Amino acid sequence: MTPFQALYKRPPLVIPHYVVVSSPACEVDKQLATCDAILQQLKLNLRNANNRMKQMADAHRCDIEFQVIERIGMVAYKLLLLENSKIYHVFHILLLKKQVGETAFNSIELPPLEDDGFIMMEPESILNTRWVKHGSKFFEEKLTKLRHLPAENTMWEKAVVIHDQFLNLEDKVLAPEEGNDEV
User: Fold this and answer.
1) pLDDT tens, 63-85?
2) Using H for helix, E for strand and C for coil, what is the string for 64-116?
3) What is the DSSP letter of 53?
4) Which secondary structure element, helix H or strand E, spans residue 42, and what is its range?
5) Which SS3 state, helix, strand or coil, does residue 38 take?
6) Which of 18, 31, 50, 132 sits a CA distance of 20 to 30 A from 162?
7) pTM of the entire structure?
8) DSSP for 125-168?
């Protein structure tokens, strides 16, 4: 069931692809071809927007392996977590992914979390820089190794964001020297 069907309780309208043919009304052909081109562009824009949203959501996620302690019923598992973890230890089977291939990093130690439950994203070092074009503007991005995370979890972050979040130097700016020669 699509989100449209869930919301409106009916399937969406199907707009067929228009094939340009020579007809007596060439203006109708042009109009229908233009509408078809707009529809194709809208579909492409939707796919691109969906991809960008997924990348932004996945940027703050990381895959961590846990040991399964026991199976609870048919659809839940109890996992071995640290005592100070802020997440519940029983998960529905649909939220878990089957491991494929060799284990490259095997640790049950969780990275430190902020008060709101997100992983602390404190940069440890800058490994590389690049310039990326978004629209008509260029932005500098830095490949950042995050503290408390393995080296495989490096990420590209805008230099402005790194500067604004982690380089708070406003209180360290030297005040302009003013003469205080008066006695």
Assistant:
1) 677 788 888 888 888 888 877 77
2) CCCEEEEEECCCEEEEECCCCCCCCCEEEHHHCCCCCCCCCCCCCCCCCECCC
3) H
4) helix 26-58
5) helix
6) 50
7) 0.35
8) EEEEEEEEEETTEEEEEEEEEETTS-GGG-EEEEHHHHHHHH--
